[in-house]
């Protein structure tokens, strides 16, 4: 408290400064979330005008719905595969870039640009890139007709989504991981090399342990983001199809709420999904975060 | 999170709407040539009189328009006139957010509307809930030029003939003989109606909210299995099988030779075919041995929303009156291919001397198709949360087309999931009687 009061002479000023942001958070996060929890105990008529308290009926309905569990399972598969790839690939790139360091400054700047591309735009581009007739896999389709059909085959559509997500995740994770690698003192490499450690050994015994904080950060961000941010990609590339194969929970919630007018069911699923994400992040901090040594 | 999108939508609505007296808003969902025609009607209305001014707002699609209307209605920023599509009929009837047009405009001769159009939108007491606007129905389109190249001179009228023609086209090296998107409206609703098959019990829900889906036990199941088999044989293609990625685009580009499509696509097809191919439109094909019944009126109609003052309601009435005028309906039909569904407009077309003209081609065939002998199950669809059911049906049948499960399993699943929707709808509107 004392250090803050030396910075701000008026004690209301800091509150005033964060107020606009807090207001936005309350308006666009806490209020809707509260509403979602509230609606999850009611059967809500789409146009308003009548809602019936149903207790835990909505939860019972959602939790006994096969579609919900399937969407949940797809969400987990997507989360695990897409976010591990979205960390692994930048890690490889960063380790490679760290060795030849001269271009790293411009590279860092150029490579981060895709981070500024909205998910929906990535989706539109990837829909073209993976189009079975004009995309990069079109020659493969010419040779073996029907081998790549994201519009018919659910697995192909899922792969397209993962590729788009990983591509979008590379820049940010690359910058974070490269920064971690760069902060490892040269002397450590030199000492390891003098002890006879080859490049591979140095990666596994020196570099990776020392960038654990960065790896942890990217993993936590990726895991939580892959649950929610897949929406833009799904909405532009697959629309949840074919046959629901790419309907992750976020997309199912949108579909149920907005085209099914099932405000109660969508709210219930939102509540469940949010609790899941919170638990997941907490678990990561509990089980992974503790083991990480932030001291150098 | 999705909820924040809802909040954002509500916030946007709050800023976007204005409600001055005699200044009314009309929301629609169409795009492309249809949107152009709608805008032209709005401009014409504003030019024809000075008392009222209508602002027409395009929302990009029927679904989005409905989503926004729900958000806007809850925020009390909704327009007085809104176009909704066929699938949302029961949701709106029970929404308590709209006033039946026939109540607001009691003096209009509503029996001027053809029976097929009335049946879809009227209450059990015979009151029209909405004014049919861009009415359409399912038609069968062929690329006559391509068919003739393959030696087919007679346009097929039955499914058996369609498939014969498809085999000939395939033998002649055509990559895409028949195309459909497998849309619920096309393969389930219009098919069931014209073959006299029920989709759900209680006459598709007209007799009560306790209806259950039955389509998985009717001849539709056989037809859909046929589509799967024909696709394997290379005769039928789906959206994703075409280069264009969309069935109408594929047909319009000449990639596919035959399609089942809405009369509303007619304008785009004639424009695309101009100078390249010859187009034919006919009633949708039947299976041999089945008597032909009417096809359903599709497209959308205009609803008057509650909660507006008298000046706005007057403006809305004036705009609805304007849209019903024969010359307006004729111009709209000529520009879009949507079907006029009032008898006086059909008379006016016949008298105009243009009756045989290409621009009115869909009017004659569409009306003929909707005027076939009706059954109690071909009146329409009065089922709750039907918009979502359409998606469930698509999702499940896509699995069958993709080879993951048989069509019968898909249909049984769709019935099961659909019945869950109906039961939830019944519970949501507990104690509410069908109007």
TrEMBL record, chain A:
It is found in: Cell inner membrane; Cell membrane. The keyword Kinase does not apply. It is a multi-pass membrane protein. The keyword Acyltransferase does not apply. Its main location: membrane. GO terms for biological process: transmembrane transport. Keywords: Cell inner membrane, Cell membrane, Membrane, Transmembrane, Transmembrane helix, Transport. InterPro entries: MetI-like (IPR000515), MetI-like_sf (IPR035906), UgpAE/MalFG_permease (IPR050809). Coiled coil: none annotated. Residues 72-282 form the ABC transmembrane type-1 domain. The chain crosses the membrane at residues 12-30, 76-96, 117-138, 158-181, 271-289. Gene3D superfamilies: MetI-like. One of its GO terms (cellular component) is plasma membrane. The complex is composed of two ATP-binding proteins (UgpC), two transmembrane proteins (UgpA and UgpE) and a solute-binding protein (UgpB). Part of the ABC transporter complex UgpBAEC involved in sn-glycerol-3-phosphate (G3P) import. Probably responsible for the translocation of the substrate across the membrane. This is sn-glycerol-3-phosphate transport system permease protein UgpA.
């Amino acid at each position: 408290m004392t250090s803050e009061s030396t910075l701000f002479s008026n004690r209301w000023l800091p509150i005033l400064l964060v107020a606009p942001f807090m207001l936005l958070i309350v308006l666009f996060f806490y209020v809707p979330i509260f509403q979602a929890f509230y609606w999850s105990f009611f059967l809500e008529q789409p146009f308003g005008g009548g809602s019936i308290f149903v207790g835990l009926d909505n939860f019972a309905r959602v939790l006994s719905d096969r579609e919900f569990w399937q969407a949940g399972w797809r969400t987990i598969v997507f989360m695990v595969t897409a976010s591990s790839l979205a960390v692994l690939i930048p890690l490889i790139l960063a380790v490679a870039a760290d060795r030849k360091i001269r271009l790293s400054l411009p590279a860092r700047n150029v490579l981060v640009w895709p981070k500024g591309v909205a998910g929906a735009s990535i989706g539109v581009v990837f829909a073209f890139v993976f189009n079975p007739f004009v995309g990069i896999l079109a020659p493969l389709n010419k040779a073996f007709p029907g081998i790549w059909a994201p519009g018919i085959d659910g697995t192909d559509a899922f792969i397209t989504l993962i590729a788009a997500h990983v591509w979008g995740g590379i820049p940010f994770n690359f910058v974070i991981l490269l920064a971690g690698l760069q902060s490892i003192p040269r002397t450590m490499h030199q000492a390891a090399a003098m002890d006879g450690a080859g490049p591979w050994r140095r990666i596994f015994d020196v570099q990776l342990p020392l960038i654990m904080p960065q790896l942890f950060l990217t993993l936590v961000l990726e895991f939580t983001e892959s649950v929610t941010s897949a929406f833009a990609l799904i909405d532009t590339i697959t629309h949840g199809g074919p046959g629901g194969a790419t309907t992750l929970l976020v997309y199912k919630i949108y579909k149920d709420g907005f085209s099914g007018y099932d405000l109660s069911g969508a709210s219930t699923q939102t509540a469940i999904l949010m609790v899941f994400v919170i638990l997941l992040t907490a678990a990561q901090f509990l089980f992974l975060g503790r083991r990480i040594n932030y001291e150098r | 999170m999705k909820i924040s999108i809802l909040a954002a939508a509500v916030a946007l609505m709050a800023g976007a709407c204005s409600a001055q007296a005699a200044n009314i808003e009309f929301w629609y969902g169409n795009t492309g040539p249809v949107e152009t025609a709608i805008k032209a009607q709005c401009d014409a209305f504003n030019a024809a009189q000075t008392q009222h001014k209508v602002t027409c707002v395009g929302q990009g699609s029927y679904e989005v328009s409905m989503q926004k209307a729900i958000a806007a209605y809850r925020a009390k920023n909704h327009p007085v006139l809104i176009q909704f599509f066929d699938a949302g009929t029961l949701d709106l009837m029970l929404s308590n957010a709209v006033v039946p047009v026939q109540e607001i405009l009691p003096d209009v001769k509503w029996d001027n509307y053809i029976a097929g159009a009335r049946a879809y939108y009227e209450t059990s007491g015979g009151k029209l809930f909405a004014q049919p606007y861009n009415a359409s129905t399912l038609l069968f389109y062929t690329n006559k030029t391509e068919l003739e190249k393959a030696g087919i001179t007679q346009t097929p009228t039955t499914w058996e003939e369609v498939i014969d023609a498809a085999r000939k086209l395939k033998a002649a090296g055509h990559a895409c003989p028949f195309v459909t998107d497998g849309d619920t409206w096309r393969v389930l609703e219009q098919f069931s109606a014209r073959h006299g098959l029920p989709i759900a019990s209680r006459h598709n829900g007209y007799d009560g909210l306790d209806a259950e889906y039955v389509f998985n036990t009717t001849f539709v199941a056989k037809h859909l299995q046929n589509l799967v088999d024909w696709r394997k044989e290379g005769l039928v293609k789906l959206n994703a099988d075409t280069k264009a990625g969309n069935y109408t685009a594929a047909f319009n580009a000449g990639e596919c030779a035959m399609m089942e499509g809405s009369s509303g696509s007619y304008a785009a097809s004639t424009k695309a075919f101009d100078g390249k191919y010859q187009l034919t439109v006919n009633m949708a094909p039947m299976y041999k041995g089945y008597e032909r019944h009417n096809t359903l009126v599709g497209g959308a109609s205009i609803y008057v929303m509650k909660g507006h003052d008298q000046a706005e309601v007057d403006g809305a009435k004036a705009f609805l009156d304007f849209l019903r005028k024969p010359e307006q309906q004729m111009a709209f039909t000529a520009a879009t291919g949507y079907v006029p569904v009032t008898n006086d407009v059909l008379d006016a077309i016949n008298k105009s001397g243009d009756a045989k003209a290409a621009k009115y081609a869909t009017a004659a065939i569409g009306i003929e198709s909707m005027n076939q002998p009706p059954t109690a199950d071909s009146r329409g669809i009065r089922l709750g949360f039907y918009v979502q059911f359409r998606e469930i049906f698509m999702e499940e049948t896509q699995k069958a087309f993709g080879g993951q499960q048989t069509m019968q399993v898909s249909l049984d699943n769709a019935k099961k999931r659909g019945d869950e929707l109906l039961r939830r709808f019944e519970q949501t509107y507990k104690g509410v009687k069908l109007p």
